[in-house]
Amino acid sequence: MTALVAPGSTAVPAGAAVLAARVADAQPGEAFLFWVLAAVSVCAALGMIFMRKAVHSALLLAAVMLSLAALYAVQDAPFLAFVQVIVYTGAVLMLFLFVLMLVGVSSTDSLVETIRGQRLWGTVAALGFLVLLVAGLGNASLGDSAGLKQANAEGNVVGLARLLFTKYVFAFEATSALLITAALGAMVLAHRERTAPKKTQKDLSVARFKSGDHPGPLPGPGTYARHNAVDMPALLPDGTPSELSVNPVIAAREGTAHMHSDLHGETEQQALEHDVEAVRAATARGAGAAAEGRAVVRSGGVSEGEGDR
Amino acid sequence: MSPGHYIALSAILFTIGGLGVLVRRNAIVVFMCVELMLNATNLAFVTFARMHGRLDGQIIAFFVMVVAAAEVVVGLAIIMTIFRTRRSSSVDDANLLKY
C-alpha cells in the first residue's frame, strides 16, 4: 500500500496526527472480533451462493447480516447495528422467507446452463472484478481512521438525527415518498382480480353430481364378529368383497378379498359351521371367565363384609 | 484495525454477491445476492464514516437500508406475480421481452 502524502505536510506532524488518531480510535478487542466476524461472514456468503436450497441461502444471508451488524457496532455505529438487526434480519429476511414458502421451499436451481459456460465465465468475471477492486484499494491511501469519538459526543443517535433533519432533510422526505410508493406498488402487484364469480356451496354440490363419480361418502370397511379393522373390506349383498370400502393404499398392499376366505369358507354351510363353533368356544371361554370373576367378587365381598362387622 | 481491512472485507462480500447474481438462476436467490452487495457497500460507508470522523457515511448507509427495504418489497411482489403466471421462479423462464 503506497501512502500518498500531501506535498505541503512534513513527515513529523503527519506521524503525530496518525498516532493521535490511532489512540482516539482504539476499540478494545477489535482485531479478534474483526477476524472472527470476517471469517464467519465470508464463509456464510460463500455458502449462500453454493447452497442448492433457497431456504438455506436465506438463513446463511441472515448469518452474514448479523455479523455485519456486529461489525457496525464495533465501528461506532450502534444505531445502524440495531437497524441492521431489526430491519434487515428481522423484516427483509422474513419477507424473503415468506415468499420462499409461497413459491415453494423445494424449488432448486436447474443445472441446465442456458448460456454455455455461464458459471465458468461468471466466476472469471467475479475474480477479475475482485482483482480490480484490490488493485484500486492498494493504490488508494486510506490512512488511519479518525474515529467517531468527537462526532458521537452527544451519542450516535443524536448525532445522526442532527444530520438527518438538517443537511439531509430533503433526502429524508423523498424517502417517505419512496416508501409509500413501494407499499402501493406491492399492493398493486400482489392484488389479483377475480375473473370468475366465487363458487357457492350450491355450485360445488352441482359440480360434484355432474362429474358422475360417487357423490356420497364411500362405503366403510367391514365390521364382523371376529374382524373389525380398516383392512377388512365390506361384503356386498352377493357375498363378494367391495374394494371401494378399503383405502386404496391398503387394497394395493395385499389381496384384500383373500381375507374373507375364513369368513365364507369353502361353502356357505362350512362357513356357518365355522362361525357357530367359534361363537360356542367364545361363549364357553366367556362363561368360564365370568364364573371365576363372580367367585373372586364373592370372596372379596365376604371378606369386606366381615371386616365391616 | 485499519480501515483497509474493513474495505477489503466489503470488497470480498461485494464480489461474492456479484458472483451469486451471475451464477444463480433462482430469482429469489439472485435477489438475496443483491442484498448482500448492498450490505457490503453499507460496511464500506460505515468504515469511511469512521475514517473521516464524520457521521455522513452512516447517514448514507441508513438511506441505503431504506431504499433496500423498499426495493425488496417491490421486487418480491414482482417475483410473486411472475411465479403466479409461469409457475416458476427461475430467471431463465421470464424471457418474454427477449425477442
Automatic annotation (TrEMBL), chain A:
Topology versus the membrane, per the UniProt entry?
Multi-pass membrane protein
Mind telling me which Pfam families this protein's record contains? Oxidored_q3 (PF00499)
Q: Which reaction does it catalyse?
A: a quinone + NADH + 5 H(+)(in) = a quinol + NAD(+) + 4 H(+)(out)
For this protein, the record's Gene3D superfamilies field holds: NADH-ubiquinone/plastoquinone oxidoreductase chain 6, subunit NuoJ
Spans traversing the lipid bilayer: 32-51, 58-75, 81-108, 120-138, 168-190
> What Enzyme Commission number(s) apply to this enzyme?
7.1.1.-
Question: Low complexity bias located where?
Answer: 285-301
Where is the stretch described as Disordered? 285-309
Q: What is its main location?
A: membrane
Q: Name one GO molecular function term.
A: oxidoreductase activity
Annotated function: NDH-1 shuttles electrons from NADH, via FMN and iron-sulfur (Fe-S) centers, to quinones in the respiratory chain. Couples the redox reaction to proton translocation (for every two electrons transferred, four hydrogen ions are translocated across the cytoplasmic membrane), and thus conserves the redox energy in a proton gradient.
To which protein family does this belong? Answer: Belongs to the complex I subunit 6 family.
| Name of the protein in question | NADH-quinone oxidoreductase subunit J
From TrEMBL, chain B:
Q: Which GO terms describe its molecular function?
A: oxidoreductase activity
InterPro entries xref list: NADH_UbQ_OxRdtase_chain4L/K, NUOK/Mnh_C1-like
Taxonomic placement: Bacteria, Bacillati, Actinomycetota, Actinomycetes, Streptosporangiales
User: What's the catalysed reaction?
Assistant: a quinone + NADH + 5 H(+)(in) = a quinol + NAD(+) + 4 H(+)(out)
The alphabetized UniProt keywords are: Cell membrane, Membrane, NAD, Oxidoreductase, Quinone, Translocase, Transmembrane, Transmembrane helix, Transport
Question: Family, per the entry?
Answer: Belongs to the complex I subunit 4L family.
Q: Which PANTHER family match?
A: NADH DEHYDROGENASE SUBUNIT 4L-RELATED (PTHR11434:SF21), NADH-UBIQUINONE OXIDOREDUCTASE SUBUNIT ND4L (PTHR11434)
Transmembrane domains' residue ranges: 6-23, 28-48, 60-83
This chain's function reads: NDH-1 shuttles electrons from NADH, via FMN and iron-sulfur (Fe-S) centers, to quinones in the respiratory chain. The immediate electron acceptor for the enzyme in this species is believed to be a menaquinone. Couples the redox reaction to proton translocation (for every two electrons transferred, four hydrogen ions are translocated across the cytoplasmic membrane), and thus conserves the redox energy in a proton gradient.
- The answer on whether this UniProt entry bears the keyword Membrane reads yes
* Name assigned to this protein: NADH-quinone oxidoreductase subunit K
Q: Record's superkingdom? A: Bacteria
HAMAP family in the record, alphabetically?
Answer: NDH1_NuoK
Indicate where this protein resides in the cell. Answer: Cell membrane; Membrane
Quaternary state and partners of this protein? NDH-1 is composed of 14 different subunits. Subunits NuoA, H, J, K, L, M, N constitute the membrane sector of the complex.
Q: What EC number(s) has UniProt assigned to this enzyme?
A: 7.1.1.-
Topology relative to the membrane: Multi-pass membrane protein
Q: What class of enzyme is it?
A: translocase
